[in-house]
Amino acid sequence: MTKQFTRAMKLFRRGTVVLLIASLAYVAGPVLQVSAITTTVSTRTSDWLAAQVGSDGAVNVPGETFSATTQTMYVANGLAASGQHRDALTRAMGYIATHVNEWVVNDGSGSTVAPLGADLPERLGELILLVHTVGGDPTSFGSPATDLLARAQALYSVSVPGFYGYQEPYSAVQDQSFVVMALVASGITPPSAAVQWIADQQCVGGTNPAGALGGWQAFRVSTNNVLNDCDAPDAVNYAGADTNSTAFAVQALKAAGETAAIPSALAFLHAAQTASGQQAGGFPWFTGGDPDPNSTALAIQALIAAGESPTGGAWTFNGSSPFSILSSWQITTPGPDFGSLYAAWQPGVPSLLATFQGLWGLTLTAFPFPVLPALVEPGIPESTPTVPTFTG
């Protein structure tokens, strides 16, 4: 099995996503959100994603192995980030509404420790965020209508106190983060134990390896009710503290109003960022690895949530920022692939996973995200996105 295939499979498991923006600043609990920024680069990517949505709302990108439902969720989450192509987004949401269980329920086809037929917390969290962002009602969504919030809350402490669902070895931090963000976006205060679970997973204190300090890995197991130390980042075996889990945890904690862990998390991200070479400014999944668009986009979201600037300042190396290096993965050759992003290990080949997540970074938005403005009448322009102010 190649390293590239192993990485792709783990990317599939961590699955990812959510949504965003509005043309106005928005307050969600203690978090002041800023709207997405529309640029030439982000518009190209939005255009490509919209072109993948069929007349029935389904997405089937040639060469992709994900199911139509998964692909449609990915595209919808990307378009929700930009707020563009609302017609395509509406069609995609219509398709998702009739395939809720196909997205949410464990059918045994994926790498998960959850029982067959159980709801998957990450996917519920993602869908709740998406429905909320497009102005829908997560307590009554789909056909037949289902209460997504109730289903998510029913997963609380089913296997471990303070945790939603079942602790996946490759994504537990991400899973918990999505549910916490979904609750916050829905106006529900997450249980303190659920938020504390995320905070406790940070690699701090004790005998944690220096390279992991401040970060999060996918999941820290416990021995005799004591958390094991984190593993040092290992870019060869894709193990240890990583930038992706850290980015999700930072955003979830910020959304929940818990900011004490953020300074050390930023230090971890800064140490992981590539500082030299042609991809300076980008972020690898694991410290010492090659930068990739997904990790760079997620790191941008964490920086946005923390009030840092991903377009300059301390996060720029050799004149290259996280935003500029993310833009460099966009395909700009005229043709059907124009505007898509490619995976770092497959130059020039469109990657749906890299494209929809990359759009989160290209629009400079963190989640949870505010509700999209209502569709305007034909001929009436939508309001201009607000440019955020960064402190870092």
Automatic annotation (TrEMBL):
User: Which Gene3D superfamilies does the record associate with it?
Assistant: 1.50.10.20
Q: Which SUPFAM superfamilies match?
A: Terpenoid cyclases/Protein prenyltransferases
What is this protein's name?
Unannotated protein
